[in-house]
């Protein structure tokens, strides 16, 4: 389903039998704290040395059109894509209503681009997040010209959190989004890739054009800056 107010760009699927694998599943977005870096990577990180060769082989099979390899590859990538889009469009920019649509766009675009992909020695995740970054930027430009859609009334009783818990969650999310929005663009993007999406320092460096060591230093500085801003707010 396409969210009203957001125009989907149609792409040709080179592997029609794999279209079902583009369905996006919900992801959990951890809080932006230094201690959550390891937690954010659990289950979705592709950066361990033992996994890199497996992923490279899987990508090669997917590029050749192997259906099972394509399904497995997208299954590994989409949790990170969902986290990234929800962080960039939801937590940072407030456009929660289009985040999952954009994540779906990224999966389809990756699927469409697979036949043209060539391994240039960089992790495949950096290729994926390059696509994701462009899709998010397009969505942000489009959302400026679009009205926020009105949610339909639910068919049955709401079994989710109560109004008090909902308000608390909303305030916490708004506070985190406000803090992130005050960071320089490069620090905000780095934290989203490292903390929210769960990329390794090496993968993040490939996306941003930095060495792994520089990524770790920049991450430490960005988190220290966030803590400082939060402490100043608590004092005020």
TrEMBL record:
<feature type="domain" description="RNA polymerase sigma-70 region 2">
    <location>
        <begin position="75"/>
        <end position="143"/>
    </location>
</feature>
<dbReference type="InterPro" id="IPR007627">
    <property type="entry name" value="RNA_pol_sigma70_r2"/>
</dbReference>
<keyword id="KW-0804">Transcription</keyword>
<dbReference type="GO" id="GO:0016987">
    <property type="term" value="F:sigma factor activity"/>
</dbReference>
<dbReference type="InterPro" id="IPR014284">
    <property type="entry name" value="RNA_pol_sigma-70_dom"/>
</dbReference>
<dbReference type="InterPro" id="IPR013324">
    <property type="entry name" value="RNA_pol_sigma_r3/r4-like"/>
</dbReference>
<protein>
    <submittedName>
        <fullName>RNA polymerase sigma factor ShbA</fullName>
    </submittedName>
</protein>
<dbReference type="GO" id="GO:0003677">
    <property type="term" value="F:DNA binding"/>
</dbReference>
<dbReference type="InterPro" id="IPR036388">
    <property type="entry name" value="WH-like_DNA-bd_sf"/>
</dbReference>
<dbReference type="InterPro" id="IPR013325">
    <property type="entry name" value="RNA_pol_sigma_r2"/>
</dbReference>
<dbReference type="Pfam" id="PF08281">
    <property type="entry name" value="Sigma70_r4_2"/>
</dbReference>
<comment type="similarity">
    <text>Belongs to the sigma-70 factor family. ECF subfamily.</text>
</comment>
<dbReference type="GO" id="GO:0006352">
    <property type="term" value="P:DNA-templated transcription initiation"/>
</dbReference>
<keyword id="KW-0805">Transcription regulation</keyword>
<keyword id="KW-0731">Sigma factor</keyword>
<keyword id="KW-0238">DNA-binding</keyword>
<dbReference type="InterPro" id="IPR039425">
    <property type="entry name" value="RNA_pol_sigma-70-like"/>
</dbReference>
<dbReference type="Pfam" id="PF04542">
    <property type="entry name" value="Sigma70_r2"/>
</dbReference>
<feature type="domain" description="RNA polymerase sigma factor 70 region 4 type 2">
    <location>
        <begin position="177"/>
        <end position="226"/>
    </location>
</feature>
<dbReference type="InterPro" id="IPR013249">
    <property type="entry name" value="RNA_pol_sigma70_r4_t2"/>
</dbReference>
């Amino acid at each position: 389903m396409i969210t009203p107010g957001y125009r989907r760009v149609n792409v040709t699927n080179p592997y029609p039998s794999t279209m079902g694998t583009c369905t996006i599943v919900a992801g959990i977005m951890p809080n932006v704290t230094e201690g959550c870096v390891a937690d954010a990577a659990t289950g979705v990180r592709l950066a361990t040395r033992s996994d890199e060769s497996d992923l490279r082989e899987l990508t090669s099979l997917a590029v050749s059109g192997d259906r099972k390899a394509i399904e497995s590859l997208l299954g590994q990538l989409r949790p990170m894509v969902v986290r990234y889009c929800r962080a960039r469009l939801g937590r940072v920019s407030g456009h929660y209503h289009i985040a999952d649509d954009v994540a779906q766009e990224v999966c389809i675009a990756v699927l469409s681009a697979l036949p043209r992909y060539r391994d240039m020695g960089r992790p495949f995740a950096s290729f994926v997040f390059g696509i994701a970054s462009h899709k998010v930027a397009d969505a942000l430009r489009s959302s400026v010209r679009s009205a926020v859609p009105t949610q339909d009334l639910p068919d049955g009783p709401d079994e989710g959190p109560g109004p008090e818990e909902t308000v608390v969650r909303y305030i916490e999310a708004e506070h985190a989004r406000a803090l992130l929005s005050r960071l320089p663009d490069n620090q905000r993007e780095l934290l989203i890739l490292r903390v929210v999406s769960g990329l390794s320092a090496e993968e993040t460096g490939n996306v941003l054009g930095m060495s792994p060591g520089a990524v770790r230093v920049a991450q430490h500085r960005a988190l220290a800056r966030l803590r400082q801003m939060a402490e100043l707010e608590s004092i005020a």
